[in-house]
Write a structure and sequence with these properties.
With 1098 residues, this protein is α/β, with parallel strands linked by helices. The protein has 38 helices and 35 strands. One of its GO terms (molecular function) is trehalose-phosphatase activity.
């Protein structure tokens, strides 16, 4: 048996490498491929932290000549790889400053005795202005400045910071407030000296040509590099002219002389296709911001595979289409690029794209034998564009992934992937699932167009899963990219074991119903046996949405019955491996970084934050709250520092502007910014050891997300804070808030006043109060770690599948077995659920049954008077009216229902629905209300109105135990569990009464049943406490069509029989025989009574 894990990206991907020192590689055109310098230590880069989407990062490079496999160190959470910047296509600010240099300058006034050394020689990219910008003061003694990236063999000599070697920049202090656009402008205009270094080996990645508009950015970079090389007097640079980095011989002064947008003639064979004017393609694509000088030449591709909601603006092709001329140009480009990739060496490397928490948890579970006797098969895309890779190379890559890594690639063209992932997933699904409904004018055409590709991509995944599936395998599908796959697989494999887990939030029905394809997505998910969510709230939203839009019935708030199947809906929060993280905290590098941080910010309160750079993370609101905190508590301007680390590329110019304005305002509160800087804003991630050290030394950690599935960064912080037990400020809109609400300080990021007060509370909380709060948090982290998530999810998938399998194995009623059980028993009870009026034949058979001493009950939704009239000709018949609300014993009615005072409130809701749907009406009975729509004039609106009514009633009255459900297009509203309570009462009564037909003895007391409310003159409380009967019921039969009312009775009979309470139990269903607790089946009510008549005659 295998566990088939399907997610958008495989845990491995191919990597092509280019040796730029070879002459034949010196003319590679960057308009054909992406070329990225490969650092020597790149193979050590770890997978992304659990709460940050790995889709925003680039793939690591392997150790040269060694195809890496995921080892123990490479698969455990989250330390296996170092984080990498999401923007690698051009020399942007994020690329100019390594995390080591940043930390060096943040800790520039610390002693060098504790400076960690790197295990491998690195050649970091350095920038003098940036280092000066991050340094504490220009007066730092030179003997206290050292690089944290010294080679272990050169520990005796320190690498001096470039700050010492450069002339004093009068704008250095002004640049202390991080303003990325200002810094880039400074770099490009020669206000600082720039020096970048890099190795000869480079990673080459295909470019996606799916609907891209022609751009001169790539060719202009080639021209600039060529001119720069010529001006420096270098006759033959070792780096090819297309490499997107500045050579060691190139300075900013030379860069200033280069034309920024010089046009490069096309060297393509079909040059007339390459010369398509930008005016033609501009009608198909929105132009990028001309002021954004950091835009990558292949910005479209970066967004395709690496960014996680980095773009806020929608670059929607007109009418959702793509330019035919762009496609023609694409094929012309492919001709040259395929020749390149046909000869480049490649290897398989671990990928850091995709869901890191999921991959780490599964790999750890396999290594620790938590998933015994099975191996994992991965299904996903390879993480890079494939159109430009020759078919024979793709075939070799696929074979290598399958044979060596159990990874089965889903190969799709770039147009399909781009439209499905970037367009539909990122610009339609992602915002909607996070309560950010897209409102672009072209969104309707855009959504309809990209939906076809989303469906196509999902179908390819389903086909790949079906192809490798073997009987007994478990299929586990992950996240919103693949929401259609469960039903697609179910159509081909009806008996497969399928689970689905959503790792992001699921909105309320009011938000989800804004999706044009809402029903198709929900139906796709209901193909799974189990659907898992991160929180109870998200699971409830899914149940309510399915109830409203699909009119699926919700059972016990944990099951969804739809299309003849039962889907288990649970919340199973993903977690981290706390013990593994604790061992990493003991690493010498982490301990040394902690010492440097303590010396750098001695006497200050450190507030640490780490978020992805987008609006949904609430960074702007966090800074506003911090600003208010400092204004109201000015003593903390010099005593506290907020370090905000941002991940991902900044494509939202307006958000960046808003944030930097607040950062500038906050830092202006300091009287001497060279000594005290209230906010340090870093739009670049740190190495993991540095991140752990910073989290360990934090006095407060703040998460202010406006909506988020499960924020695992705060889980990592809790483990890191074992020494300081620092408080956690956590937004109530994150999934983690429901898990950590006992120990964290829960905040509403929209409430600036209380948010600022919470910051003060956290900073001033004494240790004796912090310690117990931290213990609660740590306990929750351990109890809900990655191991628990794996075990719980797989167990729920199996249990749900097992129930559906049992429901699909209903056998036809065996008349001989039923007769033998009937004849061998002494005390028999029958319960028939009959919705229609009885025929004369049924009346006759019922009389025969009761005359032979059988206990016979008829149950339906009719009121008591109607039920009595229908069966008045049957002697000694028992009646159960209004689906279990009232039970008739020996002609006396007893109440089972607890409350009926809710009816008027529900009637007001239904009055509104009747007005909206002419022809509909509702009836109020003693314990229930029915809403009829069979005579509605507009039948097209029936489903919508019924869904609204059910959702409204269940939301308002759920806490009172009142539930609305639909059966055969009639909505019934009633107290939950009445039919089961009535049946349990009958079992207790007939197993206790010495003579069930004689109630005059006065000895019937003390049977525990629901209390009576508002009884009529003929109604009594259920009889209680009889003498113990010598003859218990030993034969029980419940029969009827499957419905929410009867299913609990089927289960009760099965449980009574399995526990030995009855010798023979028969749960017989007629009509629909799928997904039911019934074990036996007959074609209809007439067939059932024919069989009954035979057994009672013999």
């Amino acid at each position: 048996m295998a566990l088939i894990v399907a997610s958008l990206f495989l845990p491995y991907q191919p990597q092509f490498e280019l040796d730029t020192s070879l002459p034949e590689n010196s003319q590679v055109d960057s308009s054909l491929v992406n070329i990225q310098a490969m650092a020597n230590d790149q193979q050590q880069q770890r997978a992304l932290s659990n709460n940050i989407s790995q889709e925003s990062l680039v793939a690591p490079a392997p150790e040269q000549g060694v195809p890496p496999a995921i080892s123990r160190s490479a698969t455990r959470s989250p330390s296996a790889f170092n984080r990498a910047s999401s923007t690698t296509n051009t020399a942007t600010l994020d690329d100019l400053v390594s995390s080591d240099i940043f930390m060096e300058n943040l800790t520039a006034n610390a002693t060098t005795s504790h400076t960690p050394t790197s295990k491998t020689m690195l050649k970091p990219r350095k920038n003098g202005s940036v280092e000066r910008f991050f340094s504490l003061s220009s007066n730092i003694p030179t003997d206290r400045i050292a690089s944290p990236i010294q080679h272990e063999h050169d520990s005796g000599s320190r690498i001096a910071s470039p700050i010492q070697q450069q002339q004093q920049d009068p704008t250095a202090n002004l640049l202390k407030n991080v303003n990325k656009s200002l810094l880039v402008h400074s770099l490009l205009n020669n206000t600082s000296q720039t020096s970048l270094e890099g190795p000869n080996n480079h990673i080459v990645t295909p470019k996606s040509r799916a609907g891209n508009r022609p751009t001169s950015a790539a060719t202009s970079l080639v021209n600039r590099t060529k001119q720069g090389s010529a001006s420096s007097g270098s006759s033959g640079s070792s780096a090819p002219p297309s490499i997107k980095r500045i050579t060691p011989h190139l300075t900013a002064s030379a860069a200033k002389q280069r034309p920024l947008l010089a046009k490069q003639p096309s060297n393509l064979k079909y040059s007339e296709l390459a010369d398509i004017s930008s005016s033609e393609t501009s009608s198909q694509h929105n132009e990028s911001d001309p002021d954004d000088l950091t835009t990558a030449p292949d910005e479209e591709y970066v967004s395709d595979l690496e960014m996680d909601d980095a773009k806020q603006d929608y670059k929607v092709p007109k009418f959702g289409g793509y330019s035919n001329k762009s496609k023609l140009k694409k094929y012309a480009l492919l001709r040259s690029s395929q020749e390149l990739f046909s000869r480049l060496p490649w290897s398989i490397v671990p990928s850091i794209k995709g869901n890191g928490a999921m991959k780490n948890a599964i790999n750890t579970a396999v290594l620790e034998n938590i998933i015994p006797h099975r191996h994992v098969k991965w299904v996903g895309t390879v993480g890079i564009p494939t159109d430009e890779i020759p078919e024979n190379i793709l075939a070799n890559i696929s074979d290598s992934l399958k044979d060596k890594y159990d990874s089965y690639p889903v190969l799709t063209d770039d147009v399909t992937f781009k439209a499905a992932y970037k367009n539909y997933c990122k610009q339609i699904l992602w915002p909607t699932l996070h309560y950010q409904i897209p409102d672009n004018p072209n969104s309707k055409a855009f959504e309809d167009h990209s939906w076809k590709f989303y469906r196509n991509l999902n179908q390819r995944f389903a086909d790949a899963i079906v192809k490798i599936y073997k009987k007994g395998d478990t299929i586990w599908i992950h996240d919103y990219h693949l929401m259609l796959v469960p039903q697609m697989v179910r159509d081909v494999l009806p008996f497969a074991k399928i689970g689905f887990t959503l790792h992001v939030s699921f909105p309320s029905s009011e938000v989800f119903r804004c999706l044009a394809q809402r029903e198709k997505i929900l139906e796709g998910l209901t193909g799974a046996d189990f659907v898992g969510f991160q929180t109870r709230e998200y699971a409830r939203h899914f149940l309510q949405t399915s109830n409203r839009l699909l009119m699926a019935d919700v059972v016990h708030d944990e099951e969804l019955k739809y299309n003849g199947r039962v889907v288990s809906v649970r919340f199973t929060p993903v977690g981290i491996d706390a013990f593994d993280l604790q061992s990493q905290l003991k690493d010498g590098s982490v301990m040394q970084w902690r010492q440097l941080i303590r010396e750098r910010w001695q006497g200050k309160k450190l507030i640490v934050c780490r978020d992805q750079f987008d609006r949904i993370r609430g960074i702007h609101k966090k800074l506003l709250a911090y600003e208010k905190f400092l204004v109201e508590n000015p003593e903390y301007v010099e005593k506290s520092t907020l370090i905000q680390i941002c991940i991902g590329s900044s494509k939202d110019v307006e958000l960046e502007r808003q944030i930097m304005i607040v950062v500038d305002r906050i830092n202006s509160l300091s009287t001497n910014i060279s000594i005290s800087q209230p906010v340090v804003f870093l739009h670049q991630d740190l190495d993991f050891s540095q991140y752990l050290a910073l989290s360990s030394e934090a006095d407060l950690f703040v998460v202010s997300s406006l909506r988020e599935g499960m924020n695992l960064t705060c889980h990592e912080f809790i483990v890191c804070s074992e020494d300081k037990n620092a408080p956690l400020l956590l937004s109530e809109f994150t999934g983690s808030a429901s898990l950590l609400n006992d120990g964290a300080i829960i905040i509403n990021p929209w409430d600036t006043k209380n948010f600022s007060q919470a910051i003060l509370k956290g900073l001033e909380m004494p240790f004796d109060k912090r310690r117990p709060q931290w213990k609660k948090l740590m306990k929750d982290i351990i109890n809900n770690d990655s191991t628990n998530w794996i075990k719980t999810s797989l167990q729920d998938i199996h249990i749900s599948w097992q129930f559906n399998q049992e429901g699909s194995k209903i056998i036809k009623l065996n008349t001989k077995t039923l007769m033998e059980d009937y004849q061998s028993s002494k005390k028999r009870m029958f319960v028939f659920n009959i919705a229609e009026p009885p025929s004369s034949r049924m009346i006759s058979i019922l009389n025969d049954m009761t005359s032979k001493g059988n206990i016979v009950y008829i149950m339906n939704s009719f009121p008591k008077p109607i039920l009595e009239n229908l069966y008045s000709r049957v002697q000694n018949i028992g009646l159960i009216a209004e689906n279990g609300a009232y039970v008739s014993l020996n002609g006396v009615w007893y109440n089972i229902v607890d409350q009926v005072d809710w009816r008027n409130d529900v009637a007001k809701i239904l009055e509104d629905k009747v007005e909206r749907l002419p022809g509909s009406y509702y009836k109020i009975n003693e314990s229930m209300i029915k809403f009829h729509t069979e005579n509605a004039e507009d039948q097209d609106r029936v489903a919508s109105v019924i869904g609204d009514a059910i959702t409204h009633i269940n939301t308002v009255f759920d806490h009172r135990g009142i539930h609305a459900y639909v059966y055969k297009n009639v909505v019934s509203v009633q107290q939950v569990g009445l039919s089961l309570s009535a049946a349990q009462f009958l079992f207790r009564f007939y197993n206790s009464a010495s003579d069930p037909l004689d109630t005059s003895s006065g000895q019937i007391t003390n049977i525990q049943t629901p209390s009576q409310q508002n009884p009529s003159d003929q109604e009594q409380q259920p009889p209680a406490s009889p003498t113990v009967s010598m003859n218990h019921i030993d034969f029980a039969c419940v029969s009827g069509s499957s419905s929410p009312v009867l299913e609990p009775l089927f289960k009760l009979v099965n449980d009574e029989a399995s526990e030995g309470q009855v010798k023979a139990g028969h749960a017989i269903v007629y009509g629909d025989a799928t997904s039911t607790y019934a074990k036996e089946h007959v074609n209809g009510l007439n067939e059932l009574f024919t069989i009954i008549s035979r057994i009672i005659e013999d």
